[in-house]
Design brief:
The complex is a heterodimer of chains A (139) and B (100). Helix content of chain A is 32%, strand content 28%. Chain A is α+β, with helices and mostly antiparallel strands. In chain B, 43% of the residues lie in helices and 34% in strands. A 4-stranded mixed beta sheet of chain B has the order 1-2-3-4. Chain B is globular, with a radius of gyration of 12 Å. Classes of the chains: A alpha+beta (139), B alpha/beta (100).
Chain lengths: 139, 100
């Protein structure tokens, strides 16, 4: 079972995107604890696309959600855009041991995503950037 | 997300409820910029009703901590729910904030 939505990559569409993911995680009976974190992952990647993919212009973004039909305990979520080639996974991880005053702003979102999901990878195919995330839970 | 503010002399409390996502974080940052000024020496962030924090929300909270450090005041984060606490722990924020 795979579902997909297509939206313009703008901050106004964040609620729509998160609503889509939350609804499908709930249908897949994903535990609340994991659902919140997976929703955070989608937000981080979507906001990245809004901010960086189209150099300040607006372009399309498609988000898909797939659960394994026979086990229902694993979700595969993808986000695709048609912006410039960009692999957010190459960003350097922030130093999470620094004090408040030493802490820098960048890289935190992707760091969280990498910590939350089981698997994540990036593909550039033709004009498309795609991030694929996988998460398994116990039912 | 909703932000409620209660000022008690030099102590300011902000109660945030709902989802602290990127859109909500922009609002929180401007509220923090406006509210944490000279004369405030204690800031309390009550997160009892907040069940979701994205990295932008963490940055807003970090900004508040830096501001209170600059004002030589104190900041306390109160009533954090366990799912949100896990996000604080994952990112090292659990070590740089004061919780109650």
């Amino acid at each position: 079972m795979k579902k997909e939505i297509n939206v313009e990559a703008t901050m106004e569409n964040l609620d729509t995107v998160l609503g889509f993911i939350e609804e499908n995680l709930e249908l897949a009976k994903c535990p609340m604890k994991i659902a919140m974190k997976m929703t955070v992952c989608v937000e981080e990647l979507f906001v990245n696309i809004v901010n960086y993919a189209y150099d300040g212009l607006v372009g399309p973004c498609s988000i898909s959600f797939e659960v394994c039909d026979n086990t229902l305990d694993k979700a595969i979520i993808t986000l695709s855009d048609q912006g410039k080639a960009f692999n957010p996974l190459e960003k350097e991880d922030p130093d999470t041991t620094l004090s408040a005053d030493e802490r820098k702003i960048g890289g935190l979102g992707i760091f969280m995503v990498k910590n939350i999901v089981d698997k994540i990878y990036y593909e550039r195919k033709g004009e498309n950037n795609t991030i694929i995330m996988e998460k398994t839970w116990k039912i | 997300m909703d932000i409620k503010k209660v000022q008690n002399d030099s102590e300011l409390t902000m109660v945030i409820s709902g989802r602290l996502d990127t859109n909500a974080a922009s609002k929180l940052i401007s509220d923090i910029d406006e509210s944490l000024v000279e004369g405030v020496n204690s800031f309390v962030l009550d997160m009892a009703e907040c069940d979701y924090v994205a990295s932008s929300g963490l940055r807003a909270i970090l900004g508040a901590q830096k501001k209170m450090n600059a004002l030589q005041g104190t900041m306390v984060v109160k009533n954090v729910v366990s799912d949100v606490m896990e996000v604080f722990e994952m990112t090292g924020f659990a070590d740089i904030l004061n919780f109650e």
